[in-house]
Amino acid sequence: MLDAKIPKGPLDQKWSTYKSTCKLVNPANKRKLEVIVIGTGLAGASAASSLGELGYKVKAFCFQDSPRRAHSIAAQGGINAAKNYQNDGDSVYRLFYDTIKGGDYRSREGNVHRLAEVSASIIDQCVAQGVPFAREYGGLLSNRSFGGTQVQRTFYAAGQTGQQLLIGAYQSLERQVALGNVKMYSRHEMLEIVMIDGKARGIIARNLVTGELERHFGHAVLLCSGGYGNVFYLSTNAMGSNVTAAWKAHKRGAYFGNPCFTQIHPTCIPVSGEHQSKLTLMSESLRNDGRIWVPLKQNDTRRPSEIPETERDYYLERRYPAFGNLVPRDVASRAAKERCDAGYGVGSSRQAVYLDYAFAIDRYGMIECNKQGINNPTKEQLRHYGVEVVKEKYGNLFDMYEKITGENPYEIPMRIYPAVHYTMGGLWVDYELQTNIPGLYALGEANFSDHGANRLGASALMQGLADGYFVIPYTIGNYLADEIRTTNIPTSHPAFEEAEKNTRDRIEKLMSIQGTESPESFHKRLGKIMWDKCGMARNAQGLQEAITEIRALREEFWRNVKVTGAINEFNPELDKAGRVADFIELGELMCMDALNRKESCGGHFREESQTEEGEALRDDDNFMFVSAWEFKEGYNWELHKEALEYEVVHPSQRSYK
Amino acid sequence: MEHYNMNLTLKVWRQKNEKEKGHFETYSVPGISSEMSFLEMFDVLNERLINEGKEPIAFDHDCREGICGACSMHINGKAHGPWAGTTTCQLHMRAFKDGDTIVVEPWRANAFPVIKDLVTDRSALDRIIAAGGYISVNTGNAVDGNSLPVEKDKADTAFAAAACIGCGACVAACKNSSAMLFTGAKVSHLALLPQGNPERKTRVVNMIAQMDKEGFGSCTFTMECEAACPKEISVNNIARLNAEYMRAAFTAEETMG
Ligand SMILES: Cc1cc2nc3c(=O)[nH]c(=O)nc-3n(C[C@H](O)[C@H](O)[C@H](O)COP(=O)(O)OP(=O)(O)OC[C@H]3O[C@@H](n4cnc5c(N)ncnc54)[C@H](O)[C@@H]3O)c2cc1C
Ligand code: FES
């Protein structure tokens, strides 16, 4: 059994006890200690700037041309914090409880409680940096509700919360760059971890402009490299998001936690054709006012306006009368898939359902007409006022929908379908965010730690910033305090030689194959296997097939991939090839993990484990653990388990009927 | 929305690296669906080039949702192409019709050297931010978020300025390659908020100095930047930048002393 090193004592005192007893590094010694940070999203930028402020010598890396473009920039809806500004009964405990329950009882109490504890300081820090959160007329911060919770604890900046939080962190990072505390390496990709005497001591990075390989020493290495949803090819992630940094660490011995835990978001713009390169999220907030339906008749090709009320199936309202359209993400996604698979889907692909605002427009129109004193309003008046209200609430999302589909969602119901969105799995870390390799840490979406089997909306931003601003500055000191006598290891050390050679050999191998199929094409094929067999619903037979198919794909890739261009130049095809190769290996592990976890929980739905009504059925007796996989030669993996102990919360079956 | 297919001619800037001279290359691109995004059309073309054993066209992109600021194509003489308030990645092919010829170039500015094909080096924008585009507050120093009320309209105006995605279209659209809209947006964002007040003077002076050092041109107020900006950042921010600069200049002794 794995030990997560959770401090002893009552739940609400673990973190304060830890902070007051962990080892410290004095300022003079901090200046001698070097820390490498991979990634400049919310987790990486907040960690790099905070460690720079403390006096450590930091090197930060990102593959984009600027640290400000990390995928965090795309987050829309908001960030949770237990401020209780609305006086509606929120508290640290409630945020903790909602997160544990939302994760379907597959996360650690100690970690999640700490997350809830530091959440309030995140908002304070961001406000101080000048993050322009939405405000009320009185000048105070505004909140909205989000994803199934009963309190209003979500802070937001229009539909661009991730952008504003990241720019805040990025500006702090640039300030440290200007002060010389952080050295920034943009357009660089980390391709290997360097290990010396069992500890992480540096990295090999490739300069993506010149193609040169570089060696960098660090007393510790932080992986803040984001999630791996792009293993499915199509997802709401940015095109460049990838697993390579985490995967290289995994192959050097870092355990991978719960790889199969994937979040599929119910409201995304559906695939429009073979050319599709990514999927666009439509914020969860749309389910507050929209009604979801499909035709009652199979293969109905009529326009939505031609389908009368009596021939529509509002299937969420029918199946879940208590929560209706507001069931959690995993439940809503599976219900949409069920209808489409049964032949009730809409649109040219038949892989979509309607999200209809006609009712909301009427309802808001009536309220407005009442306010204006218009008795017996005409249809046109109702519509006019209703559209105005909806525009103010959701205008930017409706515009985005129209740009992509060319359809006006005020007139025609939106077509939506679930899409891969977030990965709860990631590198296994202990309470200190340290992987099982000493000196190697994982923060943000790259680790597996806080969301169990399903993440609640608006809590990824919270976790990324908690890790970077408020957790790692303490926990890294506890490790580095014992490293003050380690002088910088020269990068001529044989371990650096070996790691660089390893990287170079692999790049040369990729370039030498000169087969007939592009990396992109292999990526698409992998994505299709993953989506069909390791997606919203999984079963033993499908997963076994997927494993066989992925192994064959890997073999074919290394025989037939075609990478154009040269090594020592700017070559996005080569970058892509390396990432796809890693995704293929990860895909196999995800299927193994999904096969091994014979229960359903959160976003992981095993068809063999469901209730009579088709709901997810957990198996706490056999699966109340974290799966932590160790890589072994020849693509074998050994499973380690970390038992999950619930001292405060009592796990129960989730029900939304 | 009716969908249609079209055959297009593309003239694309190809340049091996910063040192070598570039040139236009012409490609005929048949069978493009009106449902594709502009970058998906490039994906189709690139896949074909790879199959023909040629090098695909390099371009910057990441989110494909109009928010990261990576994509940056000059399309038919316009930064980000024909649609107002839209990034290249959000431009869709129904903006074009069968038989069209489309000319695609990288951002052109001395401060943005070409790295390859349509990819340029925009790190000068990061250095402008590093020169002062922040509020100096270390992690852990903050007071309670609600202890400092901000008038709603000020907060909203600050947000509108902070919505800049740092793509550089303003520079590419300006005949002087000025970065005044980019810099003005950041100075405005921070000057409008009470948190930004203590560093107001040094910030604007240092950011403008860095802007000049990077080789961006001066502003002659033709407002092409605003027209090209995919986030529709207002030129009022340039006016505010100028006012902030004057204010700082008039009280320079105070700042220095
Ligand atoms: C469309 C969308 C909307 C979302 N909305 C919300 C929301 O409203 N609320 C919420 O809480 N969450 C939301 N999320 C989730 C959330 O945005 C992410 O989980 C979070 O931002 C991840 O942050 P991160 O810092 O861990 O990683 P990222 O922001 O993904 O950053 C990864 C960084 O690592 C770098 N990197 C990766 N690999 C390498 C390598 N090998 N070498 C060098 N650098 C590397 C990248 O360059 C980048 O800088 C949303 C996600 C999506 C896709
Ligand atoms: S790719 Fe991100 S803005 Fe276009």
Give an overview in words.
The complex is a heterodimer of chains A (657) and B (257). Helices cover 38% and strands 15% of the residues of chain A. Chain A has 657 residues and is α+β, with helices and mostly antiparallel strands. Chain A has a 5-stranded parallel β-sheet with strand order 5-2-1-9-17. Chain A has a 5-stranded antiparallel β-sheet with strand order 11-15-14-12-13. In chain A, strands 16-10-18-19 form a 4-stranded antiparallel β-sheet. The longest helix of chain A is centred in the middle third of the chain and has 27 residues, at 379-405. Chain B has 9 helices and 7 strands, in the order E-E-H-E-E-E-E-E-H-H-H-H-H-H-H-H. FE2/S2 (inorganic) cluster (FES) binds next to loops of chain B.
What multimeric state do the chains show? Answer: heterodimer
The number of helices of chain A is 17
Overall pLDDT level of chain A: 95
Radius of gyration of chain B: 21 Å
Can you tell me the number of structural domains of chain B? 2
In terms of DSSP E residues, the strand content of chain B is 5-15%
Please give the largest β-sheet of chain B: 5 strands, mixed
Q: Can you tell me the overall shape of chain A?
A: globular
- CATH level-4 homologous superfamily of the largest domain in chain B: Alpha-helical ferredoxin
How many runs of DSSP E, i.e. beta strands of chain A? 19
Radius of gyration of chain A, whole Å = 25 Å
Please name the CATH architecture of one domain in chain A.
Alpha-Beta Complex
- What is the 3D form of chain B? elongated
Helix percent band of chain B: 25-40%
The amount of beta strand of chain A, in percent, is 5-15%
Number of helices, counting only DSSP H or I runs of 4 residues or more of chain B: 9
**Top CATH class of one domain in chain A:** Alpha Beta
Spatial ordering of strands, largest sheet of chain B:
2-1-5-3-4
